[in-house]
Amino acid sequence: MESVRTHGLELLRAGLRAAIQAGVAPDSVDWWIPHPANGHMAQYTATSLGLPADKVVCEAGVLGNLGSAAIWVTLDRLRRSGRLVPGDRVMVLGAEASKYMYGGFLYVHGTTVA
């Protein structure tokens, strides 16, 4: 757990830097989903990365840590919540602090064709 505490935030920062280098400006993102290591990650990420706290979504406080499914479940719950509008941009920042890996993706919400 000490490696997570020591390196976890830096891995999220590295993911954010990679997104910026890929042309994704932080102020163009509507919602943020950080790696949900625990129920405090939303506030911790918002404070540490300078993001709007009401736009950082983490379900670990409600659902617990679901391991590799956590980000996908959080994205699904956000999509089903009715809070997204077409064109909203959701930046997902993943981190695996025990192995020092990071990654992420940008999801752009659209309309569904039936």
Characterise the protein shown here.
By secondary structure, the protein is α+β, with helices and mostly antiparallel strands. Helix content is 39%, strand content 18%. The protein has 4 helices and 3 strands; from the N terminus they run αβαααββ. The chain has a 3-stranded mixed β-sheet. The longest helix has 20 residues, at 2-21. The protein is globular, with a radius of gyration of 14 Å. The N and C termini lie far apart (45 Å). The mean pLDDT is 81.
Keyword list:
114 residues; alpha+beta; three-stranded mixed beta sheet; 4 helices; globular
Overview in brief:
By secondary structure, this protein is α+β, with helices and mostly antiparallel strands. Helices cover 39% and strands 18% of the residues.
Poorly predicted regions: none
Morphology: globular
How many strand elements? 3
User: What's the number of helices?
Assistant: 4
How large is the radius of gyration?
A: 14 Å
Q: Report the order of strands and helices.
A: HEHHHEE
Distance between the termini: 45 Å
* Lateral strand order in the biggest sheet: 1-2-3
Determine the mean pLDDT.
81
Strand content: 15-25%
Helix content percent band: 25-40%
Explain the layout of strands and helices.
Blueprint: H1 2-21, E1 31-34, H2 41-49, H3 60-63, H4 70-80, E2 89-96, E3 101-108
Parallel strand pairs: 1-2
Antiparallel strand pairs: 2-3
